[in-house]
Amino acid sequence: MTPEEFADRFPRLYHMADENAWPGIQRHGLLSTTALLDLFEISGKHRHALESCHRPASVPIEHRRHGRAIVRDQKPMSEGALRKCLVRMSPRRWYETLNGKVFFWLTAERLTRLLSARAYRKNAHCVLTIETLPLLRKHVDRITLSPINSGSTSINRSREEPTRSFRSTGIRSRSGHNDAVR
């Protein structure tokens, strides 16, 4: 599949962020939790709690130069359900894998389901709508797809090792080589 074929099927991608996230995204780009913690110089026990454990609520972080940001919650995940569905990995490794990624919905319908969920429907959000093709052309070597909603345990599916849960897109660069990260 080429970037153009993928973009024909999914012309836009959607990301939901905290309602006040836009200025930070404009300054630093759309960052994973891990990259945000690096930028804000969060370390030690505080970092471990945010990056390696379940976050039942969103957590504000502050930095003298970068200001304030919100590390989003992981409400759709249950520690107990996660332990039951993980295969050959710990919850800590799963959280760290997720926190090292930025996630997009492929359809407006999936985004709407998230925005309409009980945990989020009363809150304002910053919703990014991104043209797929330019993003693919710039980042095809860094993009992976997941066949499951990796941030939810409401449907009990087996979570494989991270290298198998997030798969190559199968999208080939213009050179014809599959440059996606596995």
Please sum up the structure shown.
Helices cover 36% and strands 15% of the residues. It has 182 residues and is an alpha+beta fold.
Question: How would you describe this protein?
Answer:
It is built from 9 helices and 6 strands, in the order αβαααββαααβαβαβ. α1 (3-9) packs antiparallel against α8 (132-139). Helices cover 36% and strands 15% of the residues. It has a two-stranded antiparallel sheet with strand order 1-4. β2 (59-63) and β3 (67-71) form a beta hairpin. It has one domain (3-168). The protein starts with a helix and ends in a 14-residue tail after the last strand. With 182 residues, it is of the alpha+beta class.
Write the layout of secondary structure elements.
Elements: H1 3-9, E1 12-18, H2 22-28, H3 33-39, H4 44-51, E2 59-63, E3 67-71, H5 79-85, H6 91-99, H7 108-116, E4 125-131, H8 132-139, E5 144-145, H9 162-165, E6 167-168
Antiparallel strand pairs: 1-4, 2-3, 5-6
Helix pairs in contact: 1-8
Which features would summarize this protein structure in a list?
182 residues, alpha+beta, two-stranded antiparallel ribbon, 6 strands, 36% helix, globular, disordered C terminus
Poorly predicted runs of 5 or more residues: 173-182
Strand order of the largest sheet: 1-4
Order of helices and strands: HEHHHEEHHHEHEHE
Which radius of gyration do the C-alpha atoms yield? 17 Å
Q: How much β-strand is present in the residues?
A: 15-25%
Shape: globular
> Helicity, in percent?
25-40%
Q: How many helices?
A: 9
Give the domain tally.
1
Give the termini separation: 16 Å
